[in-house]
Structures
1.
Amino acid sequence: MITQDLKLSSSVSAENIKHDDSLQKLKKTSAEKEKATENYRKASFTKRHLFTLAATFMLLLGGAFSVYLLQPEFQEMNLGRMNTVGGMILLILTSFLLIFRLSFLAYIAKLFFSYKPVTSVTDEELPTCTVIVPAYNEGKQVYSTLKSLVNSDYPAGKLQLIAIDDGSKDDTWEWMKIAKEELGERVSIYQQPHNQGKRHALYRGFNMGTGEVFVTVDSDSIVQKDTLRNLVSPFVTNQNCGAVAGNVRVLNNEKAIIPRMLNVSFVFSFEFIRSAQSVLGSVLCTPGALAAYRGKAVMNCLPEWINQTFMGQPTDIGEDRAMTNMILKQGYHVLFQRNAYVLTNIPEKFSSLHKMFTRWERSNVRENLMMSKFAFKTFRNGSKSGPRILLINQWMQMLTTYPLFIIMIVLLLLHPVLFISSTLLSILIFSTLPAFFYARKYNISEAFWAYSYSLFYTFGLFWIAPYAMATANRRGWLTRELPKKR
């Protein structure tokens, strides 16, 4: 295993030996990651995984059985509600929200079945492309990212690759220099004078880039050989296309249970939700892990994007959602390419996961407000009902966050057994859709993690949305700590 710190020896010969040894080991590591990329659908199960899944279904089925046994108590509680004004209001509110959610889900499902990814165009048709990789405290992973990009089947003469170290405190810059030495003119590397944040690193790349299309890739991600050409092709076939979202999967899904669960969640979020949004030309967020932007559209909003503020403070999060909003505002369509895969590392521990989700939720609050400023105006030609419906759904989730949170606390205090058992039954029912979706497309056994994730989120992360809304003005990336040594 290569150590995290790359120390330069005073002896030239010793340095060369160590350098060659690092390259050999790194090549072995890269080969292992390529194998993992090819076999990500076939993650194996350990005793810990089987125990977690077994415990999940014992809880969920136990909850369902409890609901059956407690039918008299449920009837008594519901009758009691109907005899009070507050109870009737609660019944009407919950019924309305359930009907709205089911109707919206049916709408998304209809759109999903209309979705088709754009077929890759020929080498001659592909535009010039600048790929920007911002890196901070990524260590040796940045090398694997750059290597996967260089190995793409995109025409080399049309591909410009820029990697920017954002003032890392570890050996990220050293690994970027190793990549530069091995990959030569295929990659250009730069170093920020000090840590300024991902947005500023991307801004530098946008200003240096010469491509007709910009692609941003996180430095902890691996792309497949055909990813770039598939991602960029919609710009050729659709002149209204201003941005394209890639298909994000989990790279480290074999290492821990949290990535295992999120791998299934990501498939539903991207391949179902974003596919439907793409039919409307209104994908709400192009992910930082993999996204493409029409160069002209980026330059039109670049000053506004880099100088964006929220409540009087510079914005240092949500750069991907902000860029998406600003491109939608120009009248462009934002699409999703299901055939443009990227595998990215995600947090393996709860402490890092809830920070990542908090950052995402704060960004959603900010950007929903921004989108509301133009979505109900004539911001583009053609139908605008699709993006408006998507925004209304976002607002429904925000506006009901606190009422539902309060209702949950009250029911938990007054009827703990009834509340928990009915919640477990709801998880069992509503998790079946993402589980079925994943099973149909990939792997039946892995699909069961959808139930574990819903259980984990409902009881472990339910507080994130109300907390993020209350603290939406706070700055900070939250998860930019140094990687642990191995």
Note: Residues 1-19, 25-40 have pLDDT under 50 and may be disordered.
2.
Amino acid sequence: MAGEITETGELYSSYVGLVYMFNLIVGTGALTMPKAFATAGWLVSLVLLVFLGFMSFVTTTFVIEAMAAANAQLRWKRMENLKEEEDDDSSTASDSDVLIRDNYERAEKRPILSVQKRGSPNPFEITDRVEMGQMASMFFNKVGVNLFYFCIIVYLYGDLAIYAAAVPFSLMQVTCSAAGNDSCGVEADTKYNDTDRCWGPLRRVDAYRIYLAIFTLLLGPFTFFDVQKTKYLQILTSLMRWIAFAVMIVLALVRIGHGQGEGHPPLADFSGVRNLFGVCVYSFMCQHSLPSLVTPVSSKRHLTRLVFLDYLLILAFYGLLSFTAIFCFRGDSLMDMYTLNFARCDVVRLAAVRFFLGLFPVFTISTNFPIIAVTLRNNWKTLFHREGGTYPWVVDRVVFPTITLVPPVLVAFCTHDLESLIPESHTVSSFCVSPGVERGYTSGSGNPPISNPLTKLTTSLE
């Protein structure tokens, strides 16, 4: 059932958890940050980035606090149930027999080396991974639970719409030019319109929609099934992501070092703050997967310090990526997907590198799309689920997958403007992860997760 308590998984050290969290936060959302920086101005962007990073850290601590409260409540309920069982047994057995049997059973369930340890455990210790739906039912009333699922569904629809638009858009930009096919893809100082020719009589918008149709036909059917065992696929895409980020930063630094930097970003332009806000919120979202990250950590003694260190590293990385981009390229030449700026012959001479960076979003996003689609489908099922009831086969296997897949594809069909899609879809979800709300619930993920909005490398490694 969605949102219940799931297995913790294999334990790992706090430093491994730090790496997992870094991997979770720094994803494809960072590719839209350079253009947002150039639009809003470097000083305003830096201030807003630091502020939203701090707010994300604060809400992360609230989530961890809520996880501890949930574990304490579950532990208290177990103690009450155990006491009731002991009271029932006392009618047929003496107190000494119950005490001996209880001590024996407890010793049998504990690890050998811990049997001799004395002292009561910390009731707020996070040992059970409580899924998002379970947390909502523990702390919210019926209205709150429904609002919770509404926020998650909006967030997931936004993700799917962005993914459905980003893949065809990248393919269109790499394979099309104003004159037709061009191995260099995006040329310098060239502005393309959707009505420009791509292949013969086909326009660029036609090519985009063809790619969208192929994308939907290839990945859409996964919505009607379950996605499991994506560990090695996620490892591969994670490696590709970090290779791509490193190559882009190095190439930008080399161009700036050789005096080829074209960027002269303004100090502040408040007209771009709205877009920057949405991009930064998207780039710092990790709270939805914290239970799957934090619960398996073997020692949580210095967890808050490590999380704070993680956020400092992420801020440094975002700043390095964005500042090298805005000083390397002119603001009006920065693409919505930053990787497409390196599909130019004057920037990268090696064709293999150009195609790798230009098609990088295609590889990484395509692996996440089925997982998020299955997650959204299962959230719909949980929202309308009634205790003891079952869905007809048509509703379960056809209706829910259809209402999951069709809306984001329609949005992607109507627009491929990623700069507007990201702020619109994630401004709503930012209120769902505000400090006041996150004290009431957290989320987790399995493999595949039922109510986890975003599954990445961390959750798949368990």
Note: The first helix runs from residue 14 to 25.
3.
Amino acid sequence: MADLHQLPRASRVLFCFLTVVAVRVMRTEPSAATAGPPGKIAVIGAGIGGASVAHFLQQHFGPQVQLDVYEKDAVGGRLATVTVNKQQYESGGASIHSLNLHMQDFVKLLGLKHRREVAGKSAIFNGEQFVLEETDWYLLNLFRLWWHYGMSFLRLQMWVEEVMEKFMRIYKYQAHGYAFSNLEELLHSLGGDTFVNMTQRFVAESLLEVGVTQRFIDDVIVAILRASYGQSVVVTAFAGAMSLAGAQGNMWAVEGGNKLVCSGLLKLTKANVIQATVIAISLHNAEGKTFYQVHYETEEGQGSSFYDIVVIATQLQDRKNNITFQNFDPPIAEFPGTFHTIVTSIIHGYLNSSYFGFPDPKLFPFANLLTTDTSALFFNSMDNLCPVNISGTFRRKQPQEAAVWRVHSLHPLEKHQLKILFRSYYSVQVKEWQAYPDYESAKSLPPIVLHDNLYYLNSIEWVTSSMEMAAVAAKNVALLAYNLWYQDLDKIDQKDLMHKVKTEL
């Protein structure tokens, strides 16, 4: 190549221009080593995280990529239903917040509908009496909160709204193609050091700092967290804020069951769903390229397949899935922390309203019961369920009628406990879930990137666990995989993103 200073001026200008264009092309086009899209991608888990990431991966890499989704149980994971008297009821994840934009988009994309809301009042029970009761009058509810707890509920609302306002930035970042290689970077881009620190401290500490009283925490905050996470104030501040946002109303569900989002996304992507248990992932290198061999078991026996990219969308803590990692150097470390078991009992029967201080069942006004952290109580919450398909003429069962109730507890209900809650019952269906992380059991956040093209989607649960957070993590992993595959490093872990997205065209 000729020395630049030996060229005429016009030629030097043209040369510089072409050099700039070439550099820009090199930064935006696929690298020579990975000029084309990956051939095969594996997703392990077909819950909302696995179904979402399959959808987003196809969205970014294109329909020509083969997507294999491994699921040992039913599609939907912790989104599930049970059947009572030929009607289906939610037994897993039940509610979606109105600000959950990915879930909103999925419903529109799949042609699903919001389930018609059937109003029902809530109350908080301490084992002897109700410490707080909801009425049909909004102003009266506000007055009661003020009378019992002063300005605590307003301070709580302001704190939650501030957290949610900053969290909503993630949708703008993702719309511009930005991704994060670890949870700390993701949180810092949304709320700075404050958000990162909120994963390392308990929610009660943060609430006391903003002026929420201890009495309000003990009576109300604990009841909400017991209902949502099965844990009390040991929940981290960030997870607590997200849970408390859901308690402020504006919740919805999918007509026909929330699990339809999972099956719908997998059908839309034409993913190959493999009914199998993944037992190992081994690393291989050939001709300078990395491959991952997924080993699995089916009813017919064992098998394996090779993939360019693997996304793990199931829990790795507690050795719950017993997936071993082979040939990795350095080896992939074990994941600290345990998961919290929640027992969900779906009971068709007659509520024993006398236990709650209402001898006449016709006068019992509540559809949702939360509880304080009292040793005498053996359940966390219970609610009068509506079926997943609600007709225009549907009405909620009257308190004196046999209804379907969902009871959350830490342990399976014994017969004498069932008799305390119900005068009589027709059926009891029990499901034990390792539903949420035990937020007190891990002091650090797990990684997203386990190896070059091996990702752990469910690490997000240690920030907070919900349907929408799984979808947010799925979008992040899909963008991260895409940006790393094509070496578009300018789209990963960028600082000052609020300023960048404002200035982008």
Note: Confidence is low (pLDDT under 50) at residues 1-34.
